[in-house]
Amino acid sequence: MQFEDNVELKMLNTFGVNAKARFYSELHAKDDLKQIATIIDDNPKPLLFLGGGSNVLFTQDFDGYVVQVVSKGIRIVSESENECFVEATAGEVWDDLVRFCIHHNLYGLENLSGIPGTVGSSPIQNIGAYGVEVKECIHQVNAVRLDDFEELQLMNKDCLFGYRDSIFKGALKGKIFIDSVVFCLSKIAHFTLNYGCIADEIKRISPNITDLKAVSNAIVNIRNSKIPDPKLIGSAGSFFKNPMVDSHKLNQLISEFPNLIYYKITEQSFKLAAAWLIEQCGWKGFRKGNFGVNQLQPLILVNYGDASGQDILHLSHQMQQSVFTKFGIELHPEVNIL
């Protein structure tokens, strides 16, 4: 395994931001980890594992080792009458796994169709869309501890999943390498269609059939109608998380903003629509030179050309400040800012 010097990362992050890695290499299997450790021991510098680059904003060159995980493999581990366990390696393209499950008539991941990135990143972020979070299907995360290369198996409960959160963003951040993920999928047909306009879109494109393919196609159509293609316009999808508030803060906001959009999570916990908050502050469609806010979905910050990561970061800070000034709500980024 060899590292290249001063490698351009523009094509390796969906924001399309110009940044360089001091050292860059690809990892094809977990056995490469020991070689990486030896190289870093000889020349200590920060280490970054990079998947599809779909949830990262480089604000400067990375003065360390960028290792792109490209390991491949999807297999059925075991199955019963009602369930099937599927293992996918960290470097697999997420949407390829979703298509594998659809092809094998396995239910659970279809609402996560079209999400960019790789399998290894999915438990870190607890990716979610259209009423489904990946934690609902993750059975086990197979990892390697970086200090002694001990292999770990973290069951679902061990991962401490939360809204766009997990133990991999907390106590285990920078301490482990995710090698593969085992998903528990259902053989019994069931769908989550009560989020947004999914049901209406299915009726439009497939009026007489509701199956895995129809649901997946509907999700992709909805995503494409709101989210710019990163091959054409740089972005990382939703930049901010939807903020959580308690009932006291919610009632306070409703009294001042009767049209507030929110979702009940528990009796005392509510999720606010960050996109609505941002739009009320006038950011939807904002553009300054080569960067701005998407015209259809204000949660998405975009790079129209050669904007820098610092440009986009500064814009995000301005948006956070205006939302806090108007609503007293702090927005937190989903994106990993480097």
Instruction: Pick out the low-confidence regions.
Output: none
Q: Structural class, please?
A: alpha+beta
Proportion in β-strands:
25-35%
Distance from N terminus to C terminus (CA atoms, Å) equals 25 Å
Order of helices and strands: EEHEEEEEHHEEEEEHHEEHEEHEEEHE
Count every beta strand, where a strand is a DSSP E run of 2 or more residues. 20
Strand order of the largest sheet: 6-7-12-10-11
Helix content, binned percent: 10-25%
Number of helices: 8
Please state the CA-atom Rg, rounded to the nearest Å: 21 Å
What spatial form do the alpha-carbon principal axes imply?
Answer: globular
What's the mean pLDDT score? 93
Largest sheet: 5 strands, antiparallel
How would you sum up this structure, described in words?
The chain is of the alpha+beta class and 338 residues long. 25% of the residues lie in helices and 28% in strands. The chain has a 5-stranded antiparallel beta sheet, covered by helices on one side. Strands 1-2-5-3 form a 4-stranded mixed beta sheet, covered by helices on one side. The model has no long low-confidence stretch (mean pLDDT 93).
